[in-house]
Amino acid sequence: MRIIKHLCFGTAGALIILMIAATVLEKMGGTSPGSSSIYSSPLFIAAWGTAAVASAIYIFKRKLQKSPFSLLLHLAFLVILAGAFATYLNGRQGSIHLRVGDRPSASFAASHKEESFPFQIQLTDFYIDYYEGSAAPMDFTSRIRITDNGNAIEADISMNNIFSYRHYRFYQSSYDKDMKGSTLAVSYDPWGIAITYAGYLLLLVSICGFFFQRHSAFRRLLRHPVLRKASTAVCLLLCPSLTAFAAEQPKHLSKESASSINGIYLYHQDRICPLQTLAKDFTLKIYGKSNYKGLNGEQVLTGWFFFYDDWKTEPIIRIKSKAVQRMLGIKGQYACLNDFFGAEGYKLKDSGLEQDTKYKREINEANEKFNLISMVATGSMLRIFPCRENGKIRWFSPVDRLPDDLPADQWLFIRKSLGLLSEQVMRNDEASIREIAGKIRKYQQKTASGTLPSDRQIEAEKLYNSLNYTKIPAFCCLVIGLFAFIHNCRKLVRNQTLKSKTEKRISMIQSALLGLLFVFLAILIGLRSYISGHIPVSNGFETMQAMAACASLISLLFRKRFEMSIAFGFIICGFSLLVSMLGESNPPITPLMPVLASPLLSIHVLTIMISYALLAFLMLNGTAALIIRYAGKTQNEAVERLYIINRILLYPAIFLLASGIFIGAVWANVSWGRYWGWDPKETWALITLMIYSAAFHTDSLPYFKRPMFFHWFCIIAFLSVLITYFGVNFFMAGLHSYA
C-alpha cells in the first residue's frame, strides 16, 4: 500500500516537473521542442498511465466507496485520462486547403504526411460576414460538398460551427486573400471525445454532489467550532484630498461646442462610435491621461485639428525613454511637436537608435505618437463620412480619395463641411458650430441608416467614457486594504475578538465602500458589455476588471464568517485594477474576433477568475497566519482559525478551477478542433490544479494537517497562479496570448 501511495503521488510530482520543463523548452526554442521532447514522448505518456493505474489501485484499496462523490470525482479524472489516451491512440489532426472550382480532394495533410478520406470534399463557395457597417470580420464561412459513394452532401463551416461526417470534423481555420480559397482544420477522433466528455459530465456531477453531501470534508469544516470565534475586520480610512491647479491653456473649443461636435459618429477601431471615444483614446495615447490642463479629450482632439499652430508648441507628447528625450533635446517626460524637428528635419528619422533593439520600441512609440497627431491635424483620422461603395457602407475622412461614382452634391459636402466648420470655429460662432455638426450627423444617419449604433448605445458609450477611471479607486483600495490587513493581524496577535462601537461603525463603512466599488465595477462591465455586444473578458484589461469585481463580491459574501475578508477584497481589487492598467489604461472596445464569439469562453474566463480570486484569498490568509505566528507570541488559536478558513476556501477554489479548465477544453474543441493542445496557459493551469489538489489528500499527505505547513503551501503555491496568468501572458507565446 505504501509503495502504491508513493508511486501515485511521486508520478504526479514528476508530471508537474516534466510539464514545467516543457514550457521552458517552448520558451527557449519554440513549440516543437516541448511537444516532441516531452508531450509526445513515451516517458510522458507512461508517466500518465502509471499515475492513472496507481491512483485507481490506491482509491480501491482505501475504500473510498464510503464517500460516493469523492469516488466519483476520482473516477471522473480517470475517465478523462482514458479519453485522452484514446485520442492519442486513434486521433489524427491536420488541415486541408481548398479552392473554389478545384477538383474534389480525398486527402489532407497531417503530421508531415498525407492522410486519406473515405470520401471526397470540395469547396463550392467562401464568404465573410462583417459587423454591421464595419470592415471587421464577424465570421468566415466555407461552403463544402462531400461526395461519398455517389451521394452528395453540402454543408457550411464557420467559426464555432463545425461540420462532422463519419467521425471527421472540419473547422474554419483561415482563408486566401482573394477569398477564393479556404483552409480547414481536420480532426478525426472516433472515441476520445465521447469518453472525455463523459468524464467532464462525471466531474460536474461529483463537484455538485460533494457540496451537498452531508458528511463531506467541506461540510465538516463549515461546522468547525473554531469559526464561531471569528472577528470582523477593522480598517483605517485615508481620504486623500485632490487639488486642481490652473494652467495656461492653448486655444480650444468651449465644452459646449466640443460637446456638439462629440455627437458626430466616427469609424474607429473597426466599429462606429461617438467622436468622444477617439478623443479619449487619442489623449490617453499621446499624453498618458484623459485630459490636459483641464481640457477634456474632445477639446484636445479638436484643438489639434482647428488650432494646430497653437498646439504644436504644447508639451503634451509623453516620452518615457531617457534616450529619446536626449535625442529630442527635452528635459522631463513631455515634448511638444516642434521638438521633433531640428535643422536637418525630423530628428528621429535615421537616428541610429532605431537600429538598436534596446531602443527600437521607444523610437517606434514616439513615432507612433507623432503620426497620430499628424493624422488628427490633417483630418485623415476623422473617418466621419459614410459612402456606399459596391453596395457596402465605407467610411471616409475629408482627405481620403472618394468613390468615383459618388454624387456631386455628396462629394462637395464631404470636402467642404469641415472647412465650413473651421470657419465658424475661428469666428467663435457656437450656434453655427452646432448647426454644421448637426448637418454632418443628419448626413451620417441618412447615408448609413441601419448600420449605426442605437442612440442608447451611443449614450451608454459616452457614460462609459466618462466613468472609466480606475487609477484612483485602485490606489484607494490598496491603502484601505493594507491598513485593514495590518490592523487585523495586530488584533489577532493580541487575541482581541471583541469590537467597540467605533470599530463596528468603521466595519460598516468599510463594507459599504466595497459594496459601492462592486456596483461601480459592475456598471463599467455592464456598459462595456452593452457597447461591444459581448461579455468583456477577451483581453487582459477586461479579465482583470472581472477579477476585481469577483473579489469584491466574494469578500462581501464572506464578511461575516471571515475576519480578513473585506481587507483581502480591497487588496485584490486594488492589485487587479492596477494590473489592468499595465498595458493600456483604457484599451479600446473592438469587435470580437470570430473565434472568441462563444458564450463558453465567457463562462470559462469568469469561472477561472473567481477561482484565482479565491486562491489569492488563500495566499493573503496564509501571509496573515505567518505574521501572527512569528510576531513574537504564539497564537495557535488564530493560526488554526485561519487554517480552517483556508481549507474551506480551497474546495470552491479548486473545483471552480477544474470546471473552468474543462469548460475551456469544450470551447477549444468547438473552436480549434482539439480539447487539449498543450498550450503554455493550458499546461500551467493544469500544473496549478495538480499542485493545489495535493492539499486535499490530508490522510495520505499528513503534512497538510499542520496549519503552518499549509499556510506556507498556500503562499508558495500561489506562484503557479501568477505564472499561469502573468508569466505565460508576458513571457510565453501561445493561443492564449490575446488574454
From TrEMBL:
Domain Cytochrome c assembly protein stretches: 538-736
Membrane topology reported for the UniProt record: Multi-pass membrane protein
InterPro entries: Cyt_c_assembly (IPR002541), Cyt_c_biogenesis_CcsA/CcmC (IPR045062), ResB-like_domain (IPR007816)
Start and end residues of each ResB-like domain: 71-177
Entry keyword Transmembrane helix: yes
Domain of life: Bacteria
Compartments reported by the entry: Membrane
Transmembrane annotation, as ranges: 38-59, 71-89, 191-214, 226-247, 472-490, 511-531, 543-559, 566-583, 603-628, 649-672, 709-732
Keyword Transcription regulation: no
Pfam (any one): Cytochrom_C_asm
Keywords linked to the UniProt accession: Cytochrome c-type biogenesis, Membrane, Transmembrane, Transmembrane helix
Name of protein: Cytochrome c biogenesis protein CcsA
